[in-house]
Design a protein that fits this description.
The chain has two domains: 51 residues; 250 residues, MetI-like (MetI-like fold, Orthogonal Bundle), CATH 1.10.3720. It is 75% helix and 1% strand. The protein contains twelve helices and two strands. Strands 1-2 form a two-stranded antiparallel sheet. Helix 8 packs antiparallel against helix 9. It is globular and about 75 Å long. It starts with a helix and ends with a helix.
Length: 322
């Protein structure tokens, strides 16, 4: 009548381990795989850091050789860039001014349009409209820069000369427009992804409390996505700062400090691309071009750090608002 011994026999030490061993083996295998994947990621990260460090080391090694004959102040604040004259002038202030001019103006064009496109695609456009416009925006990002430069040189430049009666259409405005076209898809795509990362519960709660769609957009969605949108703006503006082919083709190539958006300029990347192929190895001109690369690297890095700090501040304010 008593069943206790049988129950003890089933659940006691003599019971066969039916499921424990396979589960333990599967867990050990998963842990080993995770450790291997983690090692691969660590190696890839260190490899990227090492490659970047070697590039920076080579850049500084070749560029600092110029300053044995040219002072830093004359290089940074000199107003004349005549590297092939005798004596040579290695002043890059006009080149820096040209880079800043096209970057600022292109950002002023691209940021409102890119963010506006992201807001429309993410929160306003219907499903059918979004299916058409979003691939078009992403396709625009895949256009080669040389194609945009060719369009600016062959199409936009003559139109500018005809409409505004200016000496040349290869100027600051033309280059800024082409750079803005290149930056808009990056800003729009990343900003839209940031908008979708905002929890839908917050949006529904705002609408349930009686807020309009516009109030929800400006007080809930944008503050919640401001950090990601700032990242998109940073990447778009960084591309405008470091772009080479477009500014080489449509900026005009004049090493001068611009006083008008219709004047030709020669940004830093265009100078390196145009002159490096014809420069004797080891000459002052050669080292000067690498020194320009150092300046461009420092400007881009400083710009990214400042923009990242501003984005982080906006993220904190957005989190506090939510």
């Amino acid at each position: 009548m008593l069943q206790i011994p049988q129950a003890q026999a089933i659940t006691g030490d003599n019971a066969p381990p039916v499921a424990v061993a396979p589960l333990t083996k599967r867990k050990v295998t998963s842990t080993v795989q995770e450790a291997r994947i983690r090692r691969v990621f660590v190696v890839a990260g260190f490899f990227s850091v090492i490659i970047m460090g070697l590039i920076v080391l080579f850049l500084f090694k070749e560029g600092l050789g110029l300053f044995s004959t040219v002072s830093v102040s004359d290089f940074l604040f000199g107003e004349f860039w005549y590297p092939t004259y005798d004596p040579s002038d290695f002043g890059i202030l006009p080149l820096i001014a040209g880079s800043m001019a096209v970057t600022v103006i292109s950002s002023a064009i691209a940021v409102p349009l890119g963010v506006g496109a992201a807001l429309y695609l993410g929160e306003v456009a219907g499903h059918r409209t979004k299916e058409i416009l979003k691939p078009a925006v992403e396709l625009l990002a895949s256009l080669p820069s040389v194609v945009l430069g060719f369009v600016g040189m062959v199409v936009i430049a003559p139109l500018m000369q005809e409409w505004w009666d200016i000496p040349t259409g290869l100027n600051v405005l033309n280059a800024s427009m082409m750079l803005a076209i290149m930056a808009i898809p990056t800003i729009a795509s990343i900003s839209e992804d940031a908008l979708h990362s905002v929890p839908r519960d917050l949006v529904e709660a705002s609408l349930a409390l009686g807020a309009t769609r516009f109030e929800t957009l400006t007080r809930v969605i944008i503050p919640g996505a401001i950090s990601g949108m700032g990242t998109g703006v940073i990447l778009g503006m960084s591309r405008a700062m470091g772009e080479t082919m477009v500014v080489l083709m449509v900026a005009g190539g004049a090493a001068q400090i611009p006083t008008s958006i219709f004047e030709s300029v020669r940004p830093l990347p265009a100078t390196i691309a145009a002159e490096m192929g014809e420069t004797p190895f080891g000459s002052e001109h050669y080292h000067a071009l690498f020194a320009i690369g150092i300046v461009l690297f420092i400007l881009t890095m400083g710009f990214n750090l400042v923009a990242a700090y501003i984005s982080q501040r906006f993220h904190q304010k957005g989190a506090a608002t939510l």
